UniProtKB/TrEMBL annotation, chain A:
Matching PANTHER family: ABC TRANSPORTER ATP-BINDING PROTEIN ALBC-RELATED
SUPFAM superfamilies reported for this sequence: P-loop containing nucleoside triphosphate hydrolases
InterPro entries in the cross-refs: AAA+_ATPase, ABC_transporter-like_ATP-bd, ABC_Transporter_VariousFunc, P-loop_NTPase
Keywords: ATP-binding, Nucleotide-binding, Transport
Any one Gene Ontology molecular-function term assigned to this protein's record: ATP binding
Top-level taxon of the source organism: Bacteria
Protein name: ATP-binding cassette domain-containing protein
CDD domains registered for this protein in UniProt: ABC_DR_subfamily_A
Residue ranges of domain ABC transporter in the record: 2-233
Pfam families, A to Z: ABC_tran (PF00005)
UniProtKB/TrEMBL annotation, chain B:
GO cellular component, one term: plasma membrane
Protein name (record): ABC transporter permease subunit
Keyword set, alphabetical order: Membrane, Transmembrane, Transmembrane helix
Pfam families noted in UniProt: ABC2_membrane_2 (PF12679)
Keyword Transmembrane helix attributed: yes
Source species of the chain: Rudanella paleaurantiibacter
MF-aspect GO terms: ABC-type transporter activity
Entry's transmembrane regions: 12-34, 46-67, 87-114, 120-143, 155-176, 196-217, 229-251
């Protein structure tokens, strides 16, 4: 569904993404992991067209995205830090998004709105609060609801469970599993590897803007002999360090 | 696109600054007309206020508005919305609010105390100045990431066009007073929208004695009608080019 070829981006002298290529298919749930500053968010933002890459190409459903915007009707995005107009109420934010996206949906898409998550989070009770009065967690809930609201084909979730209480984060994980079962492509970044365990089918590991590996979870479990994602990754990383030392 | 403008208006109405600007203009205009016995003297005083205040408020308000709607812009850009259209909608929303404020605040008293072609010229010039400086402010905000820098740049633009530029022109006039500078002066005036607005109104007022060197030149070169059209046309260019540049820069901006 998404093909990335030789994507490059630098901020000034800092190279954030080295030439990076990857292909994402429907029904995949990809975990994007890597240390802070490894280029995960820049990578995601390039797919969304929020960051304009220096070189390389991204195509979405076979169409190059450069300069386009229609393709975003098939994407639901949950940012790491959701920022909203301060004096808007939750109700108004939802109304505005429905209003703005209403006419931009392709005819094939019905006007189906997925409001399950709004109810599950109990947001209707807070509808008349302004965005600036919300706690970080509630803001995250609003972001999550907006990402799922338009029933998109691709879900891009940047640190979805950060700041959510355990109950909310379970609700969100259930929802992600449900959407995954419907055959959507899901891209998640997270540092909480235990959250990713049940969700992920593939792991994409970035370091210093370079793709270290992009493999199915089974492959990781096979070569490391670990079942838990966190341990498998840790074991690969420590092996790499060892081999680096040997090389030195 | 219209929907985005609607939300820009809602946001502007909510923070009441434009309302305060309208009231301020109303009070100033009404006071000036009340103080002067002669309506055209009132217009002259109003002209000086308009030439200073309109650019300043347009620049500052637009810059602050842009940085305050950064979240809104970020939110919308992750949606299926065209970047250029988003920026143009922002421009249309801000510019139309400020133009409305100006037309109500200055237009009302002018219609009441000094209806006529000179009053109309003042209003046209004010509207053109608003568009030009909103456009320049958009360009300044799009080019800078930091709010303080953006506002600083906006203020710099105001100082340059409102104060510094005339000083520079005078310096040139004095240092090259031995040469015929008529044509050069025409070009120099075209390069400053505030001067253009001033000349545009002066041509309408038919007070060539007050216009000094440049204005007399304009009258001589163009005659009133052509001169006015030329001035307005150049002002339009001053509004369109910065907006066009801003759209181009914004299309490549990382958020």
């Amino acid at each position: 569904m998404i093909t990335v070829t030789k994507l490059e981006k630098s901020y000034g002298r800092l190279k954030v993404l080295q030439p990076l290529s990857a292909t994402f298919q429907a029904e995949q749930a990809v975990s994007l992991i890597g240390p802070n500053g490894s280029g995960k968010t820049t990578f995601i933002k390039s797919i969304l067209g929020l960051v304009v890459p220096d070189a390389g190409e991204i195509s979405f459903l076979g169409e190059p995205i450069r300069g386009g915007w229609q393709y975003r009707r098939d994407i639901g995005y949950m940012p790491q830090i959701g920022r909203y107009p301060d004096n808007m109420k939750i109700r108004q934010v939802f109304a505005m998004m429905k209003d703005l996206r209403g006419t931009n949906q392709s005819p094939a898409q019905s006007n189906y709105l997925d409001e399950e998550l709004i109810r599950a989070f109990g947001l209707p009770a807070l509808f008349d609060k302004t965005m600036q009065s919300l706690s970080g967690g509630t803001r995250q809930k609003v972001s999550a609801c907006l990402a799922f609201l338009f029933d998109p084909k691709v879900l891009i979730l940047d640190e979805p469970t950060a700041g959510l209480d355990p109950l909310a984060s379970e609700i969100l994980k259930d929802k992600i599993l449900k959407e995954k079962a419907k055959g959507k492509l899901i891209l998640i970044t997270s540092h909480v590897l235990s959250d990713l365990d049940e969700l992920t089918t593939d792991v994409m590991y970035l370091q210093d803007g370079q793709l270290q590996f992009f493999k199915p979870v089974e492959w990781l479990q096979d070569i490391t002999g670990e079942v838990k994602l966190g341990r498998a990754i840790a074991s690969i990383m420590s092996n790499e360090r060892k081999s680096e030392r040997v090389n030195e | 696109m219209n929907k985005v403008i609607k939300y820009v208006w809602l946001d502007i109405l909510q923070n009441r600054i434009v309302l305060a600007y309208t009231v301020f203009l109303l009070v100033v205009s009404a006071t000036l007309f009340g103080m002067e016995s002669n309506a055209s003297k009132g217009l002259m005083s109003l002209l000086n206020i308009v030439l200073m205040v309109v650019p300043l408020i347009s620049l500052i308000f637009t810059t602050i508005h842009f940085y305050n709607s950064y979240e809104f812009i970020e939110l919308l850009l992750a949606q299926p919305i065209n970047r250029s259209k988003l920026l143009l909608s922002e421009f249309a929303g801000v510019a139309s609010s400020l133009v409305t404020a100006f037309l109500v605040g200055v237009g009302g008293p002018v219609l009441l105390y000094a209806p006529g072609s000179t009053g109309a010229a003042l209003l046209a010039a004010g509207v053109a100045l608003t568009l030009v400086f909103v456009a320049l402010a958009f360009l300044a905000s799009v080019c800078t990431r930091d709010k303080a820098k953006g506002i600083g740049l906006a203020l710099l633009i105001w100082f340059y066009f409102g104060l510094l530029y005339d000083g520079l022109v005078l310096t040139i006039l004095f240092s090259f007073s031995d040469y015929p500078l008529e044509k050069a002066m025409l070009v120099l005036t075209t390069l400053n929208p505030v001067d253009l607005a001033r000349i545009f109104i002066m041509l309408q007022m038919d007070v060539s004695a007050l216009m000094g060197y440049t204005g007399a030149l304009y009258q001589e070169f163009f005659g009133s009608m052509t001169g006015s059209l030329y001035a307005l046309g150049v002002m339009l260019v001053w509004a369109v080019v910065p907006v066009w540049l801003a759209v181009r820069v914004f299309a490549k901006k990382d958020l």
